[in-house]
Design brief:
Helix content is 44%, strand content 17%. The protein has 12 helices and 12 strands. Helix 2 runs antiparallel to helix 11, helix 7 packs across helix 8 and helix 8 packs parallel to helix 9.
């Protein structure tokens, strides 16, 4: 029997998920959430972001949380570093991979980091040069790859231009953020056709939000076109503080269920991801949106009552 093709999943719940939660989560509870995610077999976890404490209060404990992480565990922990100072702080705590952020929309980058696309890329050039010397892997996010809450539809050529500049700087992977979750598969196909006309699919990851319930359909189209790396968030945590109404990221449970039942291997134990989701659901005091989580939770409750 042929070996299943492996798919990389980057868990972004602790950073991209919790940064948009109204109810604060303690550092110890964040650490426990991350620990439980690691027990599920997830190998790549984005833990936090080294932004100014006032910018995203939910992540103001980045330093304290990072002190608790075991960087020798075999799990790749990464952190978002919006500038050189954030990069230097992350490296001091032991991170060997950092993420940088820009968008394909100037309006969005101005709202998010108060810089134009070009200004953000110039900052990252400074980071990338140092990362080469430090032997640090750099992963990049391009948000609003299909549509922007301020500018509407974004052309694939605009995304390609940003991707070219980031890849020229030496980033090893670009996460394509469908930030507001409005895309449908044919739009994803148009975007990827443009990108793959110039670059290998191995340089990209899919990062889909589920505002209109299209995240798995868009992941399926990306998979069909050659993407083998995806971001997801346990339970479907997340959203975007600069994109009103945007639902959370595609749920890790939904993505794992889809991939494993489509003949691919993720190396992730679905039940253990659910344990992590159940834990954080209690801490934020709200229900999660993952369809797989809800279905399996209901099944377990029915068995317990029978």
């Amino acid at each position: 029997m042929p070996e299943k093709e492996s798919i990389k999943i980057t868990e972004v719940g602790p950073r991209d998920g919790l940064q948009n939660e109204y109810k604060p989560v303690s550092t110890s509870d964040k650490f426990e959430f991350i620990r439980l995610l690691g027990l599920s077999g997830i190998q790549c976890i984005e833990a936090t972001s080294f932004v100014k404490p006032g910018a995203i209060p939910q992540l103001s404990d980045a330093s304290v949380l990072s002190e608790k992480l075991n960087f020798q565990s075999g799990i790749t922990y990464s952190a978002l570093a919006p500038n050189k100072k954030g990069y230097e702080t992350a490296i001091q705590f032991g991170y060997r991979e950092i993420a940088i952020f820009t968008a394909a929309s100037n309006s969005f980058t101005k709202k998010n980091i108060n810089k134009t696309i070009q200004e953000s890329i110039e900052i990252f050039l400074d980071i990338s040069k140092q990362a080469v010397l430090d032997k640090i892997k750099v992963r990049a996010y391009i948000s609003t790859v299909v549509a922007c809450p301020y500018e509407g539809i974004i052309s694939p050529s605009s995304v390609l231009e940003v991707a070219k500049q980031l890849l020229d700087q030496g980033v090893y992977e670009i996460s394509l953020g469908e930030t507001i979750g409005v895309a449908v598969p044919n739009q994803v196909e148009d975007l990827l056709t443009t990108l793959f006309g110039k670059f290998s699919p191995s340089l990209f990851a899919g990062h889909f939000h589920d505002t209109y319930g299209m995240a798995i359909a868009n992941a399926a189209k990306s998979l069909e076109m050659g993407i083998r790396s995806f971001d997801s968030s346990a339970g479907g945590l997340g959203g975007c503080p600069y994109a009103p109404g945007a639902a959370g990221n595609v749920a890790t449970e939904d993505l794992v269920y889809f991939l494993e039942n489509s003949g691919y291997s993720t190396g992730i134990d679905l039940n253990k991801v659910m344990d992590a989701s159940a834990f954080i659901s209690q801490k934020i005091e709200r229900n999660l949106i993952s369809k797989t989580y809800l279905a399996l939770q209901s099944r377990c409750e029915s068995v317990a009552l029978s």
